[in-house]
């Protein structure tokens, strides 16, 4: 029996209510963990970039061993809507995008052995493409394109068929039909279960609903399965297998102006030549205000029939996204707030983006795509942020598509994978360490991969149990907690493979060491001196605690250079200052290097043994005479007072002669030498052992010298004219008197 379309809608006489409009509490949505990783085929997300109109693919889930889909339309820009379909029957979907007068087909993933799908066309100036959908209208396993273009209120439906392979030369327009009013939305699905998709168009201006046979469209004919005008404007339409009780696809529609008295979401099934209300197994409310303006269908709970997902802008902080499950396995209530006004999401779609065999809900607005990852279990979601082109308000305008672009996936080939990608050790100095394991595996096709590992930074504290092997394998990572002092250190372990064709043949693992405890700090660890022969010098080295306030005892030992190098003190308690002392005379001329070992006496002190390097440069003094001044007190009748002068050539021997010069100072001798007037004799000086080149000389007052005070300079001249400091002087003061007396000053003790 043929019934009037509006009578097929169940009338419910109730008081006006606004379901989901504040009377029902909304469960709070929570941020979800990243999408689960599985190995099943999954869908990708296709978006249009704001500003450029570039089509781009987002692949939120890539199973191990497979390549992610990375693609965009490059210089092809200016698109506003996008749809997906398998135009060549290769098991993955291609894309069709429209914008202005242009339509273009893209093939982001070309399957092995297949030609790349491609097609482009335009409409005449003054017209623009508007609606787009895909479906297999002729049942040949390959989808066709349904698209409309318009000028003013006139709209034309066109069907394009890509032939056997969808290559550029094979596409043809098989149908063109013009209408005197604009359609609001269109969708495809097999409503009569003949194995061919049908096309439904819904209009707002006159509430027209038209269902065309796909078989007719493929043949270039407009064969209507159903057509009728209704009482209220249609805004959105979606098709899916909403009930397993009936063969074929059902139709979900959203309409306006019902004011809450009638259902604003309608579900039809084709029964013969009539679209009739779909009987419900599960009671669902369908009266909503504000109205839902974007619809999608998908099997959210894995019960082999589709649920209906609806999106709206509630205008206030209220429920904006719902799921209707009229048939099949009962599903938890899903009603969430996602924003309103400027923060409202504009489009809803469904798809299995994580490969778990169940559809997820995806909603889009300009700055993000929100994925509800398990709507059958919770309101959890994850966001993908970006800058996306969307319609100005909530609608079914397809600015986003969800499609399987890579079929069963594109294997990576042999792929070196090291997990985890980073390690952290939190340890005490000298603590025993439990190693952490790294798995070295082939996450691609099953081919053994040879691998090598090395510590490229962080030596010597980072240690590996092995440095080469074959996948799949385990490397244990450990730490030498005595190799460094307390602090934070970062290191890198690099894994490489020389197996041909390996993807990811270099993998780096970052290692962080947080080491606590008390450590010894010795600064500086190198000191340098330049000291004249005959002199001494010293510098200070500090010994302190690091990483803690505890004190420790230490001891210093000179392990190299002890003949000329010493410390004071040789032990102490931190913090301390240790003096490093060098003796240039003991070292002799030349460059010397010594080493001081500083040891903490507590074995649990980090860096408990450290070394200080001491560099000493003693310039060659040449000819050395010491001392430079002498004073002799001689009693006129007493024994002769003798003073000794040491004379030597450091590192060798030299002949010399000496003379007493009757001048008061050594500067005067230098002036005589400069004038060439200096004559070396032995008069007035007693010199012993001249022929044996002695290393000393005795100086005394000549017997019979009258009482008085005398001054002279002894000049000693080396025989070698090339020797540095060849002329040396000793200033001598002599006092001759009858008796030498010693005077003691009074000492006051307190």
Walkthrough of the structure:
The chain has 750 residues and is mostly beta strands. It folds into four domains: 13-403, 7 Propeller (Methylamine Dehydrogenase, Chain H); 416-516, Immunoglobulins (Immunoglobulin-like, Sandwich), CATH 2.60.40; 519-618, Immunoglobulin-like; 624-737, Sandwich (Immunoglobulin-like). The protein has a five-stranded mixed sheet with strand order 29-36-35-31-33, with no helix packed on it. The protein has a five-stranded mixed sheet with strand order 38-45-44-40-42, with no helix packed on it. The chain has a four-stranded antiparallel sheet with strand order 3-4-5-6, with no helix packed on it. The chain is rod-shaped, with a radius of gyration of 50 Å. The N and C termini lie far apart (136 Å). The model is unreliable at 1-39, 680-693 and 743-750 (pLDDT under 50).
